UniProtKB/TrEMBL annotation:
Domain annotation Maltokinase N-terminal cap: ranges: 29-114
Classification via InterPro entries: Kinase-like_dom_sf, Mak_N_cap
Family: Belongs to the aminoglycoside phosphotransferase family.
Quaternary structure and interacting proteins, as annotated: Monomer.
Keyword Transferase attributed: yes
Enzyme class, spelled out: transferase
Reaction catalysis annotation: D-maltose + ATP = alpha-maltose 1-phosphate + ADP + H(+)
Name recorded for this polypeptide: Maltokinase
One Pfam family matching this protein: Mak_N_cap
EC numbers for this chain: 2.7.1.175
Keyword Glycosyltransferase on entry: no
């Protein structure tokens, strides 16, 4: 580290002690952020694990990088520091005003909303090296243009993203933990394996506070300009009564390609009967925990457990497990300008511990995620369009089978267990984040908890026909 850098890092360490004065504003601001996991609970312990000024002291604006331990979860914050008043364009980014400590009299705000600070981050990513506790790294073979105009990605997300000149997108991870984030690990592995279905990371940064295992903090990847979010595209098609089976089939093929590339590139294993029973027990435990949290689920708990019991009882031969996407749904798919499908956001379910998300699992977990997504889309439509969802689900499975030779419907016990587990996850997700949507997974939960009804309505798609949404069988919940 250069002398100047080490002086800056000493200063940052000194100033970490000065985080105290920022604490009240952070306590107020954090729970309002979509990415903050501890919503609904009062914050107890809040302390800085690491604090680093990324610009020389006295710079205006200043940039403070924080890793905060909030009740045991570690969050990444990038704070801009400017004299008050803030320029009007930055007003929406304001967090608060420092009334004491080293930043007395300054406005503290979300640095990602400040184009000057966002541009500085891109510059750091272009030049590998360390800065205080942060290490910047990049793919030496991928050129990164300088001076691109940044803009924050609008819309609430699990993390925060910046788009640079429609050329790159930088994801700044919010809740972070030790170990490489699968959203860096898997796209890099896929790129090395030559799989073009996933944008390849071109630069990234990490931290190793206290010399421990590095935490992935941000990843820069090509921005797929002109692409359509699969969820929005599906809703548009539904809205105009149009077919989506060709896209669903192609998405099944794309998903299968990614699964095959991951299975080739990274370790796989076969889950024996004991491991499968443990898997089923994990699903049952998640169901029980969710039923405690989401009262609407309680009447269905016993019925849902049947799917997991069947999984535990069904295994003699073993279930293949591999690295997978982990939270696949239509919102994680992009139909690119050339009409092909790409998959993004390999972080896995944000609420699961990182070590769990990095374990090999049956690929059907991802398949169940997409199948659930077709149901979500159909239920967002008025009137509910079950035939549309059924056709898409079948087409997706056929596309998957076309590439891998294995149709996920041939293992209905495994598929049902994973679809049930996903619906339970969604019930918890919706009750925490979007209570107005809880009725969507609840409809699936009612269906999946009734063993006498067919688990999956998946008639084979009729090529070249347009499924017309039928009137609702029962009113939307
Ligand atoms: N490489 C990309 N090209 C184009 N758009 C992208 C790309 N990566 C992400 N996006 C857009 O950004 C949104 C958020 O990205 P995502 O990885 O899902 O972040 P989060 O982890 O915050 O949910 C996506 O829904 C998509 O619209
Ligand atoms: O933020 P992430 O994209 O990592 O995923 C979380 O949020 C998703 C909602 O934005 C949630 O997905 C659920 O809603 C989707 C429609 O908005 C639907 O297509 C998915 O099938 C459904 O699971 C996802 O579960 C959650 O992890």
């Amino acid at each position: 580290m250069s002398e100047a850098a080490s002086a800056r890092s000493r200063l940052a360490a000194d100033r970490a002690a000065g985080i105290g004065p920022l604490e009240p504003m952070l306590r107020e601001w954090l729970p309002a952020q979509r990415w903050f996991a501890g919503k609904g609970r009062e914050i107890g312990r809040l302390r800085a694990v690491s604090a680093a000024e990324l610009l020389p002291p006295g710079s205006v604006p200043g940039l403070l990088h924080l890793l905060l331990d909030v009740d045991g979860d570690c969050y990444q914050l990038l704070l801009g520091i400017r004299p008050t008043p803030l320029p009007p364009a930055l007003a929406p980014a304001l967090i608060g005003h420092a009334r004491s400590g080293p930043y007395t009299g300054s406005a503290v705000y979300e640095a990602l909303g400040d184009p000057r600070l966002a541009a500085m981050l891109l510059e750091r990513l272009r030049s590998p090296g360390t800065l205080g506790p942060l290490r910047f790294d990049r793919d030496p073979d991928a050129p990164i243009e300088a001076g691109l105009t940044p803009r924050p990605l609008s819309g609430e997300q699990t993390n925060s993203s910046l788009i640079y000149g429609d050329s790159y997108i930088l994801k700044v991870f919010r809740r972070v933990g030790p170990g490489i984030n699968p959203d860096l690990e898997l796209p890099r592995a896929l790129a090395a394996a030559g799989c073009a279905r996933v944008p390849a990371p071109v630069a990234w940064y990490e931290a190793a506070p206290g010399g421990g295992e590095p935490l992935t903090l941000g990843v820069l990847q090509p921005y797929l300009r002109g692409s359509d979010d699969g969820w929005q595209l599906a809703l548009r098609r539904l809205g105009s009564g149009a077919d989506f089976t060709a896209e669903a089939h192609a998405l099944g093929r794309a998903t299968a390609e990614v699964h095959s590339a991951l299975a080739d590139a990274l370790p796989t294993l076969a889950l024996g009967p004991e491991q499968t029973a443990r898997l089923a027990a994990g699903m049952t435990a998640r169901l029980a925990a969710t039923a405690r949290e989401v009262p609407a689920l309680r009447p269905y708990e016993a019925g849902l457990r049947g799917a997991f019991d069947a999984l535990a009882a069904s295994r003699g031969a073993g279930v293949p497990a591999q690295r997978i996407h982990g939270d696949l749904h239509l919102g994680q798919t992009l139909r690119t300008a050339d009409g092909s499908w790409a998959l993004i956001d390999f972080e896995g379910e944000p609420a699961r511990p990182l070590a769990d998300r990095r374990r090999p699992e049956p690929a059907v977990r991802d398949i169940a995620g997409i199948l659930r997504s077709f149901d979500y889309a159909a239920r967002s439509h008025r009137p509910f369009a079950p035939a549309w969802a059924d056709a898409c689900r079948a087409a997706f499975c056929e596309g998957y089978a076309r590439t891998t030779g294995r149709d996920p419907r041939e293992d209905p016990v495994l598929l049902r267990a994973y679809e049930t587990d996903k619906a339970v996850y969604e019930a918890r997700y919706e009750s925490r984040h979007r209570p107005d949507w809880l009725h969507v997974p609840m409809a699936a939960i009612r269906r999946l908890s009734a063993p006498e009804r067919p688990a999956h309505r998946m008639p084979p798609p009729v090529p070249g026909t347009t499924p017309h949404p039928k009137p609702p069988r029962r009113p939307l919940a």
